[in-house]
Design a protein that fits this description.
The complex is a heterodimer of chains A (about 190) and B (about 375). Chain A is about 65% helix and about 10% strand. Chain A is α/β, with parallel strands linked by helices. Chain A folds into two domains: about 5-130, Rossmann fold (3-Layer(aba) Sandwich); about 135-195, Arc Repressor Mutant, subunit A (Orthogonal Bundle). In chain A, strand 1 (about 5-10), helix 1 and strand 2 (about 30-35) form a beta-alpha-beta unit. In chain A, helix 1 crosses helix 5 (about 110-155) and helix 5 packs across helix 6 (about 160-175). Chain A is elongated and about 75 Å long. Chain B has about 375 residues and is an alpha/beta fold. Chain B has two domains: about 5-100 and about 225-375, Periplasmic binding protein-like II (D-Maltodextrin-Binding Protein, domain 2, 3-Layer(aba) Sandwich); about 105-220, 3-Layer(aba) Sandwich (D-Maltodextrin-Binding Protein, domain 2), CATH 3.40.190. Chain B has 16 helices and twelve strands. A five-stranded mixed β-sheet of chain B has the order 7-6-8-5-9, with helices on both faces. In chain B, strands 3-10-4 form a three-stranded antiparallel β-sheet. The chains are: A alpha/beta (about 190), B alpha/beta (about 375).
């Protein structure tokens, strides 16, 4: 039986690192550690001797790993060095997902590919979750703005909630602007006069 | 004689760009000014290019994104381009047709180390600085952490060249590490590093904050040393020759604009004010300390003689004897002098007649032959 591959995950985003770590464990890999940024990264890598390092493409620590790879023959090397015909696509997909990797010389390409694919999939999933969260937050913020504007209109016009909302909707239709913009305008105007 | 930027424009029949929307990456350093100025002053637009700039966090990330087309081009240390051509750290060979500046680097030591090696606060030349460091190391039992920004960066090469020239073993009591430029000052403040070599404004910031003290400017190690170049992959350059030339034209115009202290100062100030470089206490920084020069063609021509020096430094740090094939072939395939010549000719600006020049032997200003008129060259001595 082949030795289980050991992977080190470096990512300042702890949530995403946890997601990648769990996915790799599920696939039967040894995850040696999950690090966010550290002053002694080079020492940690020396100590842990991972077969592969998965690192956020945007991590400022990348150049530290580069230095190790150049100066120390036994240190993991950047994955872009190993891009042969068959791997090009895998690596490109990983990079587009924001994943970079360092691997030890001699690691079979199909094994590297499997780990890269898992990491890239989790990075994309995390990206989608984050985008969704941002959407929800925006929607909530929009709703709060509209509620506040409605309250101001009710107070100013001494009308019911329904009448206030209808008035705002009419303005939005007349001016062909999103309700949210109308609400923001109302707030800025009515807060000045009140 | 200084160039007027208004005179620099491509002829109307210049080939149309194969690709007109480009992503260009940069690392927050004063010497990234040519790409920022070309964007802010509309020179890219004038050359028919729509450019999006993207701030990147490491040279490795710039290299990988350029390798895989997420970025079209980026200013990068010449060493990274040449290393990729030697298949070190990359699979796609990169090329450059343009230099993007001289000088701009310095070596800074921590305030504690400065006090220890120079208690009387003397002004050092490169030899005195080396002797002071050597004396300190001789009586010191531990190791000093010395940071540069990338193993193939000009800073790392300058630092090593200086140490070795004065018989200090760069691997003895000095531990060479890498720290990204924007984290340098912070790492020194926390006591993680004792000495660093980095581009401006990070040396000046360390000094302004009292965290460190400049030991030597890069200028004192090699006067008017080349540093960043415009890096693209060979594949990209082959597929987009007209785009590449238009890009060079826009950047040449930016470099011509930067050919006086007033423009340089306003350019650097713009970098800091418009958040291209994320630091807040810029008032205390001497923006002109780096003695940057962007003057075409001295600072912009892709000199083969400089490529060769960088190639040799790469061989030294990686313990290689020779690149595959010869160094001459490697530099000729990587530094696209013909492409630069085509653009400069189309813009009708002066060009050197030769692709190489003597490096590191001129104590005073000198002159070389140019296609339109002689070119005034600045001194380029090492170890002043």
């Amino acid at each position: 039986m082949k030795k289980r591959l050991s992977v080190l995950v470096i990512d300042e985003d702890r949530g995403r690192a946890a997601l990648v770590e769990q996915a790799l464990r599920d696939q039967g890999y040894d995850v040696l550690a999950r690090l966010d940024t550290t002053d002694h990264l080079a020492d940690r890598v020396d100590e842990l001797k991972p077969d592969m390092i998965i690192v956020d493409l945007e991590s400022p620590d990348r150049d530290v790993l580069e230095n190790m790879a150049i100066l120390n023959q036994s240190s993991p090397r950047p994955v872009v060095m190993f891009a042969e015909q068959g791997d090009q696509q895998t690596i490109e997909k990983a990079i587009r997902a924001g994943v970079s990797a360092y691997i030890v010389d001699g690691l079979e390409h199909h094994r590297m590919k499997a780990i890269l694919d898992v990491a890239a999939a989790r990075f994309r999933e995390f990206q989608a979750l984050r985008a969704e969260l941002a959407d929800v937050k925006n929607e909530l913020a929009d709703r709060k703005v509209i509620e506040r504007a409605k309250g101001l209109v009710m107070k100013h016009n001494r009308c019911s909630e329904e009448q206030a909302f209808k008035a705002m909707r009419k303005m939005a239709m007349d001016q062909q602007k999103p309700l949210n913009d109308i609400a923001k305008n109302i707030i800025s105007v009515l807060e000045l006069v009140s | 004689m200084s160039l007027l930027t208004t005179d620099i424009r491509l002829p109307d029949d210049f080939p149309v760009a194969e690709k007109s929307e480009l992503n260009i990456g940069y690392i927050p350093l004063l010497d990234c000014i040519p790409v920022i100025a070309a964007k802010e002053l509309g020179f890219f637009e004038e050359a028919g290019l729509s450019v999006t700039l993207s701030r990147e966090s490491s040279w490795a990330s710039i290299r990988d994104k350029v390798q895989y087309g997420l970025l079209d081009a980026a200013p990068m240390p010449a060493g990274i381009v040449l290393a990729s051509a030697m298949h070190l750290g990359a699979s796609q060979p990169m090329v450059t047709a343009m230099g993007l500046g001289l000088n701009g680097n310095a070596i800074t030591v921590s305030a504690t180390l400065w006090e220890a090696i120079n208690p009387i606060n003397a002004t050092f030349n490169s030899q005195e600085a080396a002797m002071a460091l050597k004396n300190y190391l001789d009586s010191f039992d531990g190791t000093l952490n010395v940071a540069s920004v990338h193993t193939y960066s000009t800073h790392h090469f300058l630092l090593r060249a200086w140490l070795q020239h004065f018989d200090i073993d760069p691997a003895g009591k000095l531990k060479q590490i890498v720290v990204p430029p924007p984290q340098m000052v912070d790492a020194m403040e926390r006591g993680v590093i004792d000495m660093f070599c980095v581009g401006e404004p990070w040396n000046s910031l360390a000094q302004a904050k009292g965290v460190g003290h400049k030991l030597l400017s890069g200028h004192q190690i090699w006067e008017n040393a080349p540093d960043k170049v415009l890096g693209v992959t060979k594949r990209w350059s082959d597929a987009n020759p007209a785009t590449h030339q238009r890009l060079i034209a826009a950047l040449l115009k930016a470099c011509a604009w930067l050919d006086n202290d007033e423009s340089k100062l306003s350019g650097f100030t713009m970098l800091l004010n418009n958040d291209y470089i994320p630091i807040d206490d810029m008032e205390s920084i001497n923006l002109m300390f780096g003695q940057h020069s962007f003057t075409p063609p001295i600072a912009t021509f892709p000199w083969l003689s400089q490529a060769k020096w960088f190639g040799q430094q790469i061989l030294k740090v990686t313990d290689h004897d020779q690149p595959l094939g010869s160094m001459d072939t490697l530099v000729e395939q990587t530094y696209l002098t013909d492409l630069y010549r085509q653009v400069a000719t189309a813009l009708n600006i002066n060009l050197p007649r030769a692709n190489t020049k003597d490096e590191g032997v001129h104590t005073t200003d000198w002159e070389i032959a140019g296609t339109l008129q002689p070119i005034d060259m600045p001194s380029d001595m090492r170890f002043r």
